[in-house]
Each structure stands twice: as C-alpha cells, then as structure tokens.
Amino acid sequence: MNYEITRNAIDIQEVIDKVISRNAGAVTTFIGTVREMTYGKKTLYLYYEAYETMAVKKLEGIGREIKERWPESITAITHRVGKLEITDTAVVIAISTPHRNDAYEANRYAIERIKEIVPIWKKEIWEDGEEWIGNQKETVAYPKGKPEEKEIYD
Amino acid sequence: MIKVLFFAHLKDSIGADSITLQMSGESISSLKKAISEQYKVDSLHTVMAAVNEEFADESTILADGDIVALIPPVSGG
Question: Which of B8, B9, B46 is nearest residue A140 as measured by Cβ atoms?
Fold first, then answer.
C-alpha cells in the first residue's frame, strides 16, 4: 500500500522504505508539517478531514501520473487526518528515481497535485475561533462543478 | 435513492455528514440547487462534485444508488 490515509503519527522511514530500489540513485522526501504562525495569526492546532476512500484513489491517480512522466520512479504518499499539533507531520511523500533531478521534480509535482485534487480539508483552530481552509475568499470557483481538465491531468 | 456526502464547512452548515434523497434522472446541478434551497447554503458554486468517487461535471445525470460527494475546494498537504 503505497498510498495511505492514516489517523496515526506517520513513520517517515516507513514511507521511505517503500520506494527504496536497487535501481534508484536518489530518494526525495517532502514532509509537510503543522505551522504555528500563518500571516501573523497563531494556530493552536489543526484538524484534517478526508473523504478517505476517494482520497486514496486520487493519491493512486497522482502516482500513475508521476509514473507516466518519470517511468522509472517509485512513489509513496501517506497523509494523516484527525487532530494534529504544531510541528506534527501531516503528509510524507517519498519518491525514488535513478537520477536526482527527476526525484526533486516528481516530488514537487506530487505535492502540488495533492493540493489540487485530493479530497482532504484542514481546519485551523486559533485562540479566538476556527475556520475550514480552502476557499473562504471564494477565489477558486468550479463553474463546471469539477476541476478543469488541465487541473486534473496537467 | 441517492446518498449525498458532505465535508468540511459544508458538513457544518448542513449539520450532517450525509443525507439520502429520493431522486434519480436529475443532474448534479439540480441536486445542488435542491440542497442549496433546502439547507440555505449559497456557496455551492465553488463546490465540486464526485459521483461514486470520481469527479463529475454539473451536467452528469444521477442514477438510483449513486453516491454523490460535494467537495469544497481542498486544502490537504
């Protein structure tokens, strides 16, 4: 299972181990962590929610997109949900490739795609309130009701 | 019967994580309109929809037994 949603603390090494290969010359990891200050506002903790079955499917889809672009890559992604404290790890992406440049590029691609198409939401909890993050300013609209083709496949 | 799932702020506004509706042969767009009127939520134009766990566009026609998820802009990572 290279693509997982978990309620528990993520074991980073366990995610890395899934992509270790004799053919790999590089492994990149992206570790998304819970930040305390966002534009001057102090977060107490975060709460992540996922549409879990679909989120796993979408992570697998991102894995397929990466495989098409970097055929020799191996990808593993684990995203945590539930209550996360400041400095906790929310997501780990590990990608191995024969050469380092591809491993960096593919990893960047993976996190950007997660932020576009994987049904996971975070709520920031502050001292004086809380808010689901995503589109409070309505800067993103989906007139067709789903991401544009380029958002899905680009 | 169609099951509709809600997440994040939509779940809070609607006050439930899912509802079932007696409808079929209608589009996602009319489903959204119905929910928007019934539950007085007006931000559904920024919400994506998935049918049986795949993103679907507004004109998708729903069939009996479909599971529709209304998906606000995501914020994972």
Answer: B46
